[in-house]
TrEMBL record:
Protein name per the record: alpha-L-rhamnosidase
Reactions performed catalytically: Hydrolysis of terminal non-reducing alpha-L-rhamnose residues in alpha-L-rhamnosides
Top-level taxon: Bacteria
GO molecular function list: hydrolase activity
Ranges where the Bacterial alpha-L-rhamnosidase N-terminal domain occurs: 200-367
Pfam families assigned to the protein according to its UniProt record, in alphabetical order: Bac_rhamnosid, Bac_rhamnosid6H, Bac_rhamnosid_C, Bac_rhamnosid_N, Ig_Rha78A_N
Enzyme class: hydrolase
UniProt domain Alpha-L-rhamnosidase C-terminal: residue ranges: 834-906
PANTHER family, alphabetized: ALPHA-RHAMNOSIDASE (EUROFUNG), ALPHA-RHAMNOSIDASE (EUROFUNG)-RELATED
């Protein structure tokens, strides 16, 4: 959505503007009298859409609005709201000229759709909201918030795509024993144009994008903290654009607008080297300047720009790293008075109306934080190995001694193997940065157009006469810019480390799209990984807009027959041929689960057609309601019967998995149809679901519910139990079979990518949370703590990816930074803390913490659309204390079936009740009792 800031002058104005108008028209025929008192505090945390705050360059001309009641307000519930939207501050204070909702009787405080005058590109919109509480007392108006729209369609762009005239260099590859093939390597380009600025700039916006990745500059200064923009979309269908507020950067007189352009995902290779035919990178820019006297000035990318390949960044690729030649530095290249006469005139390309140019839908990747080196591991044969202390994603920032003409090499690894720098799991990705100094002494360097997944850095080629120090290197952590909550903590150090590992896996793989891994020659948006991790990630970070944006890409990549590629965006801008159950089912599972966590119906509206088309594809792969779709199955299940590649898919029958997911997709699409008022379709899908359920039961289980097709596995029972594919009178028998599977495995898990996320919800429903705690706290392989015992700081792709004693798993497909098995984090919140939505969006909340003697305490919180729910429980012997805060505008159902002598206090006053426990209203509660099960 561009840079989340507001116009600088407006910002300064808003700092001194205090809105005191409280007597506004509340509309006609509302049936509620005006309330004159304002005892309730004004709304807070105003957002538009999926979480944007005062965005510049916003993509949606019909956004939704959300807000929260302050925790310290006298209000308990909202009974009504009023939103005002205007084109100026004066209009907002006097008469909202775009939209006035008037007083709307509802407790809804989130996802309120704009219903006013149509909005247009560049428009700056001012809005505010107030609410009425349960006693009809009116709050103060909120502070005024702003959003500014970007260029909403291709017709708003006046310039042309530009690039250096050279077509690039031919590079020859030989893959294995196959024939040699050649591809074109496009070196990074430096682009610039000059223009004359006038005094008294009122507003200046830079609208910009690229086929490739770019870094913009204005008058010698880099614009923003973004990296690898505009990101990764299906480039033949849609390219995202960025908007930057550059009001304070325009000079009176000579100005220079410039950019560096590199291959990125658009032109750079995807997967291992292979023959490809892709066009060169291009750049597109439009700088619009408004002056106080009403004049405007537009500077666009066109034939007048100049370009060179001879800048210091000589090579840059996502997988292979960057090569920087200090001798080619061009001081002041993006500033006035630089001589660009030796540069080339660019060539241009007209904007294709078939390729949509759309403002970015979520915050771009940015440099988020910097980590210092923790240890200098070794110094041998002129190579120094540094331990950054954390497996993560980003680039190094070095300040090292160098010798003129002696090339410095930086290599990256996730772990060491007996002090050996290990890179085998990177496969064909070179993951190496080079720096060629032109002078001797200390030099600073940070790569621009690459990213690495690593913990260890090896530096060689430096001046070895100098004593190395950990101060020589820092790690710049990068990911899409969102808030990470860090909102769970327990009394168990390894459980806390697991939570940190999962969070770092989230950070590392949310790199514009949801990646599967960030280090090897892959880094793809695998749908199966996304399917199992989307909901857990929502508990850990503010990633709703991230997922919503990626789902648009998924919709664009879906084939006409409903097939969903296994990873998205797809390779080489083309659809892959495959589809997989459990992977493609992300298109039904993710929208429905996001709806449960947010209550936002738009996520269902936007994706409904995609969901129904996927059902069509499922049907095409089925016979007599049994799906025979290809499947990765229960990927990387431990101890498989098969060996090598044959064992990766696990032992659970393919059709059993595919049919179970067919049923789940039909179920979720039926529920979505009902929410959207499509009653007839919902009934048809409910009937189809029952037919699949009947066929599933008959095809895969005998009369005693023993598996009759394929092997009996934990997943072969977890799937139907969680997806409710057995009749109610059969569940107990199925549960016994599942428990027997655990008994035979000595209470270790035997699940892969699809089965593992189902362990906790199934066992909790069975009343077997004690078994889930046992699985969670296992120390030996396969288990989560096994990785921690072997030094993991992120979650792994395999349960046995690495061992301190034996080193890396011999398989080359072996990432130490995968988030799929981190899906267990959902149970930290829904199980250990016990926070679940009873209705979509947490208007009603279930609080059912799971106590166990393996923990003496656990605490955490979750930001619901209404506000923060927090819980802190402590266990001393059999005595339990729970500190619980319920947010405003919600109510909670407390379920503590294993606690006797229950006492609930609010404001230090006991609440008198008999069974059942009453619904808890917003507020803070202290709950005590004695456990009857520990």
């Amino acid at each position: 959505m561009g840079i989340p800031s507001v116009n600088n002058k407006i910002s300064r104005l808003l700092q001194v503007v205090v809105i005191t108008i409280t007597l506004f028209s509340c509309g006609k025929n509302q049936g509620v009298s005006h309330a004159q008192s304002t005892n309730s505090l004004a709304p807070i945390q105003l957002k538009v859409g999926a979480g944007a705050i005062n965005p510049v360059g916003y993509y949606d001309p019909a956004p939704s609005f959300s807000w929260k009641i302050p925790a310290d307000s006298t209000a308990t519930f909202q009974s009504a709201y009023q939103i005002q939207v205007a084109s100026s501050l004066d209009s907002l204070k006097n008469k909202a000229d775009l939209w006035d909702s008037h007083k709307v009787l509802t407790d809804s405080n989130a996802w309120i759709n704009y219903q006013g005058t149509p909005l247009t590109s560049r428009q700056i919109v001012y809005w505010r909201v107030r609410y009425w509480d349960e006693t009809n007392q009116q709050s103060d108006w909120s502070p005024i918030n702003i959003f500014e729209l970007g260029l909403l369609d291709n017709t708003q762009w006046q310039g042309e795509w530009i690039r250096h005239p050279d077509t690039g260099e031919t590079i020859t590859f030989k893959k294995g024993t196959s024939k040699e093939f050649s591809n074109t390597l496009y070196r990074p380009q430096y682009l610039r144009t000059q223009f004359s600025g006038k005094p008294n700039v009122q507003k200046a916006r830079l609208y910009v994008t690229a086929k490739g990745v770019f870094k913009p500059y204005l008058n010698g200064q880099a614009i923003g903290n973004d990296t690898m923009t505009p990101g990764w979309t299906p480039y033949k269908q849609r390219i995202e654009t960025l908007t930057y507020d550059v009001t304070d950067k325009i000079l009176t007189g000579n100005n220079v607008l410039g950019a560096i352009l590199a291959e990125g995902w658009y032109t750079g290779r995807i997967l291992s080297p292979q023959k490809r035919d892709v066009p060169a990178p291009y750049f597109l820019a439009q700088l619009e300047i408004s002056y106080d006297n009403g004049q405007t000035q537009v500077i666009t990318s066109n034939k007048d720009w100049r370009a060179t390949h001879n800048g210091p960044i000589q090579m840059a690729g996502n997988y292979d790293g960057e090569f920087y030649d200090q001798s080619k530095e061009m001081p002041g290249w993006a500033a006035a008075n630089f001589d660009d006469s030796s540069w080339n005139t660019v060539i241009t390309q007209t904007i294709d109306p078939k390729v949509e140019l759309e403002p970015k839908r979520h915050a771009p990747v940015r440099n988020i934080k910097t980590l210092p080196a923790q240890q200098l591991v070794s110094q041998n044969d002129g190579a120094i190995i540094f331990d950054m202390g954390q497996n993560m994603v980003g680039v190094p920032k070095v300040n090292i001694p160098v010798i003129k003409g002696q090339k410095v090499q930086l290599r990256f690894s996730e772990a060491l193997e007996h002090d050996k720098f290990y890179v085998k799991n990177l496969r064909s990705a070179k993951v190496t940065d080079y720096y060629l100094p032109s002078q001797t002494g200390m030099t600073e360097y940070q790569p621009t157009f690459t990213f690495h997944g690593y913990r260890y850095v090896e530096i060689s080629g430096h001046d070895t006469s100098k004593t190395p120090s950990t101060s020589w290197i820092k790690a710049v952590v990068q990911h899409s810019d969102f808030d990470v909550y860090e909102n769970f903590e327990s009394s168990h150090p390894k459980l806390n480390q697991l939570q940190r590992n999962i969070t770092w896996g989230l950070r590392s793989n949310f790199y514009d799209i949801p990646l599967d891994c960030p280090q090897r020659d892959e880094r793809l948006g695998w749908t199966g990984d996304a399917q199992v991790f989307a909901a857990p990630s929502m508990y850990m970070a503010d990633v709703y807009s991230f997922w919503s944006a990626w789902l648009k890409t998924v919709r664009e990549e879906q084939a006409d027959n409903g097939r969903v590629p296994n990873f998205i965006p797809t390779k080489q801008n083309k659809h892959t041929k495959g589809a997989s159950s459990g992977w493609g089912d992300a298109v039904t599972v993710i929208p429905w689960e996001l709806y449960q966590l947010t209550g936002d119906k738009r996520i269902l509206v936007d994706n409904f057609e995609m969901m129904t088309k996927w059902l069509d594809y499922h049907k095409s792969q089925s016979k007599d309601y049994i799906s025979n779709m290809q499947s990765f199955q229960d990927w990387l299940q431990p101890f498989p019967e098969g060996e090598g590649r044959a064992g990766r898919r696990g032992d659970t029958d393919k059709s059993l998995i595919s049919t179970a997911y067919y049923a789940r997709s039909v179920e979720y699409t039926a529920k979505t149809s009902k929410v959207l008022g499509k009653t007839e379709l919902a009934q048809q899908l409910e009937q189809l679901h029952q037919q699949i359920k009947t066929a599933y039961r008959q095809a895969f289980y005998d009369n005693d519910l023993k598996v009759i097709k394929g092997s009996s596995t934990q997943t072969s029972y977890l799937l139907p139990l969680e997806f409710e594919l057995f009749d109610s009178n059969e569940k107990e028998v199925a549960q016994k079979h599942l428990l027997n599977e655990f008994k035979e495995s000595k209470h270790h898990l035997r699940t892969g990518f699809l089965g593992t996320p189902l362990l906790a919800p199934v066992l909790q429903k069975m009343g077997k949370s004690d078994l889930m705690f046992e699985l969670l706290f296992k120390e030996t392989y396969p288990s989560w703590f096994y990785s921690i015992n072997n030094g993991a700081t992120t979650t792994w792709e395999r349960w046995n990816s690495y061992s301190l004693t034996e080193g890396y798993n011999s398989e080359s497909m072996n990432s130490l930074n995968h988030y799929a098995y981190g899906a267990v984090a959902k149970w930290f919140y829904q199980g250990i803390l016990g926070i679940k939505p009873l209705v979509p969006g947490f208007k009603k909340i279930s609080v059912e913490p799971q106590f166990n003697t393996k923990l003496t305490s656990a605490k955490g919180h979750y930001q619901t659309p209404q506000g923060k729910i927090s819980i802190n429980w402590e266990l001393k012997g059999t005595h339990i204390t729970v500190d619980l805060t319920i947010p405003k505008n919600t109510q909670a159902e407390l379920n503590l079936p294993t606690i006797k002598n229950l006492v609930i206090r609010q404001n230090n006053q006991p609440i008198l009740f008999s069974d059942p426990i009453p619904k808890l209203l917003p507020g803070r509660y202290l709950i005590t009792g004695e456990s009857i099960s520990l």
